[in-house]
Design brief:
- The structure holds two protein chains of two kinds.
- Chain A contains 23 helices and 16 strands.
- By secondary structure, chain A is α/β, with parallel strands linked by helices.
- In chain A, the strands form four sheets. Chain A has a five-stranded mixed beta sheet with strand order 2-1-3-4-5, covered by helices on one side. A five-stranded mixed beta sheet of chain A has the order 13-12-16-14-15. In chain A, strands 8-7-6-9 form a four-stranded parallel beta sheet, with helices on both faces.
- In chain A, a hairpin with a 2-residue loop joins strand 3 (about 60) and strand 4.
- In chain A, helix 10 runs parallel beside helix 12 (about 230-245) and helix 18 (about 430-445) runs antiparallel to helix 19.
- Chain B is of the alpha+beta class.
- Chain B has two domains: about 5-70; about 85-160, Glutaredoxin (3-Layer(aba) Sandwich).
- In chain B, strand 2 and strand 3 form a beta hairpin.
- In chain B, helix 3 crosses helix 4 and helix 6 runs parallel beside helix 7.
- Chain B is elongated, with a radius of gyration of 18 Å.
- The chains are: A alpha/beta, B alpha+beta.
- At the A-B interface, helix 2, strand 12, strand 16 and helix 18 of A face helix 2, helix 4 and helix 5 of B.
Chain lengths: ~525, ~160
C-alpha cells in the first residue's frame, strides 16, 4: 500500500449555507488535528448535498462509499476524526451519504453532482458525467438541439413557466449580427437558494447549459447576472468559467468545433426588480433597472437590442441532462404540462430544511409535513408561502395542492422559483400582508403607477385595518387596490404582490382587524 | 494582522485613481454599474466627484449616471462605518424569528437600520435575502456569513462589530 492510499479524504462543503454555520472553521480544525496526529488528510470542498439542517455535513471516503457526519461543530472534530480513522460509530455518523432517506427519496437530475464533485475541477465534472450533453449537441444542428429542448417539456424555472424550447426557437429564427445568452441568477426571492447552491456546487452544469443554448441559437456571448448578495456564487462561477476556458470548453472553436462561445459574470447591485427579465437587461446595459414594456420580446430585441435567450439558472442547468439522456428521459417525470423535476427549497421555520429535487406532482402537504417535518419550533404549521415574496400564502386546508404550475394557478398561487417558507401559529398574517406591500414599495422600479403608488397606499390601508379604522371599508379598498395592481402593473412585481396580500386576507381573515382581535385569535 | 483582512481598508479618493479605474474598464460594454462597483470597492463609497467623470468617459449625461447610481441599494453616497452588519429581513428569516433579533441588534447598537453608530464603528443595514433560508435567521458581517442566529449569536456578532 502506498502512502497516498492511506490519505484520509475528507469532504467539507464550501456552500455558503454550510459556511454560515461554521464549515470554514472546520477546515482549519481538521488540519490542526491531523497535524497534531501526523495523519495524512486531504480536504476537498464540494458544494452542499442540500440537507441543510445537517450542515456542516462532512463526509469521509470509505470502501463502502462516502460516509457522512453532521451537524459537526468544532468541538466534535477530534472525536469525528477518531471515528473516521477507525471507520467506527459516532453520535453524529449518518451512514453512507447516498443512503440517507431524505436524499434517496429525491430524483436528482439537475442536482445530481451538487455536493458530490469538486466545483473547482472541470476534470471532476467530466468524471461524473459532465459535458456529455455538449458532446451530443455538437453532433446536432440548431433545429435538432431545439427539438430536444421543446420535446422535454422544460418550462422556465424562474417562475413564469414559459416553454424554453419555444423561446430558443424564436431567437434561432431571428436574424441578427449578434445574439446573446443571458442567465438570470438574480435569485432575490426569500425562501429560494437553488440557484445559489448549483452555482456554488456545480458551476459547470450552468456553463454547459448556456454553451448548448449558444450553439442552438447562434449566439457567441453569454452573461451571467448574479446578485451581489451571493459573493460565493460569484467566485464559483468566475472560477468555473476560467477552468472551462483553459480546458477548451469556452472560447473559440469549442472542443475543436466551428462554434465559439464566451461567458462573463456581471454583478447586480441590490435591486430585487432586476430579477424581472427586462429590468435585468437594462441593468446589464449599465442603466437603471427600469422594466421594459413588452413587446418587443427579449427574444427579438433583448440585450443591446439584439435577439437574446434569457433563462433562469435552473433552466440552463436542466439542459445537459436533456441533451445527454434525451428529451423523453426528462419528460417521463412530472404531471400535466409540468414536465421533469423541480428543485424545491424548504425554508423558514422548518425542521428539515434544504433542497429537495423531485418530479412535479408531489403535494404541498407531503413537502411540508413529510419531507420538511413541520416546524423547528415544534408548533403547528399555520401558513406556508410558496414562490417567494410574490407568492401566495397557503393554509393547511390547501395542502392537497400538487406541485404543478397549473394546479397552483388554479388556487390563486404560483410555484415561482420553488421556494416554500414555513410559518408556525405565531405568525400574524396581516403583518405579512403589510410586508408584501412594503417590500413592493421599496423595490418598485417606479415605471408604472399601480406598483409605485399602489404599494404605498397598500401599506397605509393595511395599517388602518390593523388599527381597527373602518375595517370593512378599508378591506374593500385593499381588495380594489390589489385588483388594480394585479391587472394594471407592467411586470410581476406590482402584478403579483397582491397574491400574498389577497391570500392572507382570504385564508386568514381573523388576522385583519384591530390588534386585540388578532391576539385573541392567536391564543 | 494582515492588512488585506482588515475590513474597510479603503483608499482615499483621488481623481487620478478614479480616472485609472474608469480607463481600466473602458472595454466593458454597458459598464456603468461595473465602474460604480469598482469605485466603491476602492474607496468604500462612490464619491460625488466620480459621477461627472464616468459620464464624460461613457458619453452620458451626469443625470443619467446619477440616476443609475441612486437606483441601486448597494451604492453608498458616503463611507460606511468601520464594520457593516447586514441582517436579513425577508420572509424566511421572519418565519424563523428574525424580526425580534433585528430589533435586538438595533437596541444593542443604539441605531435604526440604515444608520451608522455615532462612533463610526458599525453601519447596520437590512438585506433582503442571503439565500440562507434553511439556516435562518441569517446575517453578514463585513462579507462573512452567519446563519442560525439566536440571541446569543446575534449578541456575539454585535459585540464583534463594535470591537
Amino acid at each position: 500500500m502506498t502512502s497516498s492510499d492511506k490519505t484520509l479524504k475528507i469532504y467539507i462543503p464550501r456552500d455558503a449555507a454550510a459556511v454560515s454555520v461554521g464549515a470554514d472553521e472546520l477546515v482549519s480544525a481538521f488540519e490542526a488535528q491531523a497535524e497534531k496526529r501526523k495523519l495524512a488528510i486531504e480536504i476537498i470542498r464540494p458544494g452542499s448535498r442540500g440537507l441543510l439542517w445537517l450542515e456542516p455535513m462532512i463526509e469521509v471516503a470509505t470502501p463502502e462509499g462516502r460516509v457522512a457526519f453532521g451537524p459537526v461543530e468544532e468541538k466534535d472534530v477530534a472525536s469525528v476524526l477518531d471515528a473516521m480513522v477507525a471507520n467506527g460509530p459516532h453520535a453524529l455518523r449518518l451512514g453512507v451519504a447516498e443512503e440517507i432517506p431524505w436524499l434517496k427519496k429525491q430524483t436528482r437530475l439537475t442536482f445530481v453532482r451538487c455536493g458530490v464533485v469538486d466545483p473547482r475541477s472541470v476534470e471532476d465534472y467530466i468524471a461524473h458525467g459532465g459535458y456529455k450533453g455538449l458532446a451530443r449537441a455538437l453532433t446536432l444542428d440548431s433545429a435538432g438541439i431545439i427539438a430536444d429542448v421543446t420535446t422535454s417539456g422544460l418550462r422556465g424555472r424562474g417562475g413564469a413557466g414559459f416553454p424554453t424550447g419555444i423561446k430558443w426557437k424564436t431567437v434561432a429564427d431571428t436574424k441578427a449580427d449578434r445574439k446573446f445568452i443571458v442567465c438570470n441568477a438574480d435569485e432575490g426571492d426569500s425562501g429560494t437558494f437553488a440557484d445559489r447552491m448549483i452555482m456554488e456546487g456545480d458551476p459547470f452544469v450552468v456553463i454547459e447549459g448556456m454553451t448548448i443554448a449558444g450553439i442552438a441559437v447562434g449566439a457567441t456571448k453569454g452573461y451571467i447576472y448574479i446578485r451581489s448578495e451571493y459573493p460565493h456564487a460569484i467566485e464559483a462561477m468566475n472560477a468555473g468559467i476560467a477552468a472551462a476556458k483553459r480546458a477548451g470548453y469556452l472560447g473559440d472553436n469549442i472542443r475543436g468545433s466551428a462554434h465559439a462561445f464566451d461567458l462573463e459574470v456581471r454583478v447586480g447591485a441590490g435591486a430585487y426588480v432586476c430579477g424581472e427579465e427586462t429590468s435585468l437587461l437594462e441593468s446589464l446595459e449599465g442603466r437603471r433597472g427600469i422594466v421594459r414594456a413588452k413587446p418587443p420580446l427579449p427574444a427579438h430585441k433583448g440585450l443591446f437590442g439584439k435577439p437574446t435567450v434569457i433563462n433562469n439558472v435552473l433552466s440552463f442547468a436542466a439542459i445537459p441532462f436533456i441533451l445527454d439522456n434525451g428529451a423523453k428521459a426528462y419528460a417521463d417525470y412530472g404531471m400535466g404540462r409540468s414536465r421533469g423535476t423541480m428543485p424545491i427549497q424548504l425554508a423558514g421555520n422548518v425542521k428539515f430544511g434544504g433542497l429537495f429535487e423531485v418530479a412535479f406532482g408531489i403535494t404541498l402537504g407531503e413537502l411540508v409535513d413529510d419531507i420538511g417535518g413541520g416546524t423547528f419550533t415544534g408548533r403547528p404549521v399555520r401558513a406556508v408561502q410558496v414562490g417567494g415574496p410574490l407568492g401566495a400564502y397557503f393554509p393547511r386546508e390547501l395542502f392537497d395542492t400538487p406541485f404543478d404550475y397549473e394546479a397552483f394557478a388554479k388556487r390563486d398561487g404560483l410555484i415561482g422559483h420553488g421556494g416554500i417558507v414555513v410559518f408556525d401559529d405565531t405568525v400574524d398574517m396581516s403583518k405579512q400582508a403589510r410586508f408584501a406591500m412594503e417590500f413592493c414599495a421599496i423595490e418598485s422600479c417606479g415605471k408604472c403607477t399601480p406598483c409605485r403608488i399602489g404599494s404605498t397606499r397598500g401599506v397605509e390601508t393595511i395599517d388602518k385595518i390593523r388599527r381597527g379604522e373602518r375595517v370593512a371599508e378599508n378591506i374593500a379598498v385593499l381588495q380594489d387596490l390589489s385588483n388594480t395592481m394585479k391587472f394594471g402593473s407592467l411586470c410581476a412585481l406590482g402584478g403579483f404582490t397582491p397574491y400574498p396580500v389577497m391570500s392572507a386576507l382570504k385564508h386568514f381573515p381573523d388576522d385583519f382587524g384591530p390588534a386585540p382581535t388578532r391576539l385573541q385569535a392567536a391564543e | 494582522m494582515n492588512a488585506a483582512y482588515e475590513p474597510n481598508a479603503y483608499e482615499p479618493w483621488s481623481a487620478d485613481r478614479g480616472t485609472e479605474i474608469i480607463e481600466s474598464l473602458s472595454h466593458v460594454e454597458g459598464g456603468v454599474i461595473v465602474i460604480l462597483h469598482a469605485m466603491q470597492e476602492a474607496f468604500g463609497y462612490v464619491p460625488e466627484a466620480a459621477i461627472p467623470m464616468i459620464a464624460l468617459a461613457r458619453n452620458l449625461s451626469r443625470a443619467e449616471v446619477h440616476g443609475v447610481f441612486t437606483f441601486y441599494h448597494d451604492f453608498r453616497h458616503e463611507p460606511a462605518g468601520k464594520h457593516v452588519l447586514k441582517i436579513c429581513r425577508a420572509e424566511a428569516c421572519q418565519a424563523a424569528g428574525g424580526d425580534a433579533l433585528a430589533a435586538r441588534a438595533e437596541a444593542k447598537l443604539g441605531v435604526k437600520f440604515g444608520n451608522t453608530t455615532a462612533d463610526q464603528r458599525v453601519t447596520l443595514e437590512p438585506i433582503y435575502c442571503l439565500g440562507l433560508c434553511a439556516t435562518a435567521p441569517s446575517a453578514m458581517l463585513d462579507g462573512r456569513l452567519v446563519g442560525r442566529l439566536d440571541e446569543k449569536r446575534i449578541d456575539a456578532l454585535v459585540a464583534e462589530a463594535q470591537r
